[in-house]
Design brief:
The chain has about 350 residues and is an alpha+beta fold. It has 13 helices and 6 strands. A 6-stranded antiparallel beta sheet has the order 2-1-3-6-5-4, with no helix packed on it.
Length: about 350
Amino acid sequence: MEDRVVKIHLYKHDFHPNYWIWTDHGEQIVKDDLDNNNDCIGTTRGVEDDQFLSMQDMVYDALRQQQSSQPPSSNTMEEASNEQTQRFYNLLLDANTSLYERALDSKLSMCVKLLACKSNWNVPDQCLEFISKMLLDVAPTNSNLPKSYYDSKRLVSKLGLEAKRIDCCVNGCMLFYDNGSDKNDGALLECKFCHKPRYRDHNTGASNKKLVPVKAMFYLPIIPRLQRMYASTQTAREMTWHYDNKSNNGVLRHPCDAEAWKHFDKVYPDFAVEPRNVWLGLCSDGFNPYVQASNAPYSCWPIIVTPYNLSPEMCMSKPYMFLSCLIPGPSIRKLVLMSFWSP
């Protein structure tokens, strides 16, 4: 069927309403088996708690993995978790204690909610400190509520999903960082290409000697988040969907059915033979983060990465579209965007 015919059909009849899972194209509805875990944390309470479901799922999987991660014996084929993974599970188990008796929330979920308030509505730190103290005043005496906003950040930061700040050239020519192999630019004081300074000039007689970079970007490592997907039994089994559900009738319903994907398999057969290898899609676009219009234009570029191992309804959903780095403005030339992808 020609593209023009498909476009005309969509213009006239629109897309099929509420068609989220492509059952007519071979996809199957997956039923979660988390009913027996409701008494551990509590039931979810509406759409506003959707952003915390992934955190609860990680805790459920940590509980199940903890029970099955004992050293292998003759009666089991399970392998023991490595030290790093076991430490992550222990952290989740310790943090996922109830706030108080018969509480529906855990200490970890409450900390995440406090951080979400700041992220979603730009709540000041002083306001979050007041909310933390107010919750302590109305909660039972022996509660596990975070004592302050700082305690919440410290607990969530132990999960390992950190953000790194990397100094960059004011013109976007390069990044000042070391990757441990071929790049050792972390000690440079000026750009290698345009020779612009890395740090701002100090005021004469200023008491603060801290070096302030002219420009910096935020980098969110992608590897720890991919490791979390394989640590969860719910998402680990979905990471081979692209290998187990290839289309045989010529219908393009996933990137794995495209000719470009098949050509990549032929060029790199060693990579394609292992279905657990991660296929990543990268996209980016500039936008103005400021709501109010300003005289000077400002463009900020987020870099979004999504694993194409998952089914279409998962890899195109918000929880699996990972923000890997945020390129600051006010203006970035498209020709230098590649320099920010180095990490």
